[in-house]
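User:
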Amino acid sequence: MPRWFTALFWTSIALAAVVVGLSTWDAFTARPPEPDPALKRTVKIVRDQWGVPHISGKTDADVAYGIAIAQAQDDFRDLEESLAAVRGRAGAISGEDGAKFDFVGHLLDANAVAEKGYASLSPATRALVEAYAQGLNDYARKNAREVRLQGLFPVTGRDIVAGFALRSPFFFGLDRPLSALLDDRLPPRDAGPADERGSNAFAVAGRRSADGTTRLILNSHQPWEGAVAWWEMVVHSDAGWDFAGVNFTGAPFGLMGHNKVLGWTNTVNRPDLIDVYKLVLDDSGKRYRLDGQWRDLEQRRVWLRVKYGPLVLPIPRTVYRSVHGPVIKNALGAFAIRFAGIGEVGQVEHYYRLNKARDFADWQAIMATQGVPATNFIYADAKGHIGMFHNALFPARAPGFDWRGVLPGDTSKALWTAYLPWSANPHVIDPAAGWVANANNTPFLSTAPANELKRSDFSEDMGIETQITNRAMRYQARFAQLGNQQISREQLLSIKYDKGYDRAGWAGRWWDEVLALDTKGRPDLQKAQALIRQWDFTLDCQGAADTLVALAFAQHARFAYLQKPVPNARAGLEDAVAGLTRHFGRLDPPLGDFQRLRRGKVDLPLCGGPDALRAMIGDISADGRRVGNNGDGYIMLVEWTAAGQVKSESVHHFGAAATRPQSPHYNDQSPLFAAERFKPVTFPAKPAG
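Assistant: Predicted structure:
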């Protein structure tokens, strides 16, 4: 818990006798929402044999209403928690952890951003988010026993938009400077995620495929549970919305997938899109200096309602804001944060329009509106076009500043107010090699070397990432092995499921360090070294050293991905040897016995490992097994034949019923996922009747 939170909590405890009335407010306020008889929806939800909802409606808004109903049926728990965070009431459900989200929501002023930007959305988009909110309200009214936080409903379209404003900047690393500043530390100089999350994406043009088929693989790595776990759907409206793919709780449309003529997937990128400014305050601490003039520091008192046992205690907190953006005061001074897309809600419009894009030109025109502040887009379509787009809202920064460090907050010369056009972003379109890919790596490693972009063509002030993951090195090597031959479906899937590690990358450096360790007097470590010396640099569940390696280099993989100094290899080796000896009585148990997929009564072996293209990340359970919870999750293969006909297959790591253990679809796809197989996607959905 941050120090500021601890202090305020105990202050509130001292006032508990005064605020008992407030503490019970969340449990006894507003009644469940009443339906609006004027809002009738023509929608039908039909689930396939895997429980995936096929949602059809007369209008797009009808479909959005159905998405809300189906999503609530599968995962009302995470929906409610997401909405509570938007409303500043997550602490009333989740205690201290939820209160942190509430504080950030107040700091970013997400609700005010949504309110201000709502009118800028098209009438069709506003109708969509309002219908989605209506679906959530109707579900909550009809299923009142599931509602944990009374007074949360009814929600509005503005709440849905605020959810995007709140969540978006964390996908390109806002949590890192925020966490540092709240802990009285300077922010890191590098951009990127705060934890080990990744994605893979591949597209192969029909002219390079053995059968003339254009293929797109969606393989975005997200946590396997929670508000940002993938949820699958297929939709149809009589107004021309046909889409198959996935979204997160709180989204009234697909975030990645395909329609009849085109599709895309995303991988998280990490360009430098966040700037931190050191403010100069006057003696009162209430004004800051800018261009020689003193300005009032905006401040607002907020209350974080935090659940402790049966009580919900109000904890006061002050949030500050300057012209730069939200401000955090700590032991080092006052720091303002400015990030790409600050104060904007265009991504709601952007994603909705992408769902209905008609061709490559239309799709690119939508992308050029720059509604999505950051994330790579990998594209393919029925005409055989492919592309890798390093999408980001790059600030138009003035030269002469250290944009990676803390910036001076007293001069407007360092305060950017505009962005570079989308055409300035790195992108590779229809390369001669006939393929593009990304695995959270620099955009200058997106296709065959002869077709790559040049780093020197882009300004250093853009802060374009230089990261090269093991996954990127592996797909480069695997495609290179194919030479100029046509790429078959099986070969592409073999690359996607690759479990190897590049000898020239961090895994090779770890291997060298382990084998160089002085293990005199430690026969157990000497035995481990001998086993690791035999390792073939794959975690395919075939080698005797696979489990020992997967366990021993896990922290190396994590720190390499986060671009942090890697930990000492000896400690990881010692911990791995001790754990395997304690739980297995040997150093060479099969990897499939150690690495498991567990969900309800399902308990299955998993191959692969951290930062492999078959990425497996998890936590060690009480019985010494690593249980998967991140990495490879939802996967979709989209194919357009030479004649332009589309079909797709997909697999989810668990199933459609995200938080419904009683449902047969709680874990029915897990055997397919563990076996690296797919299920068919029935597309398009049938019209509502």
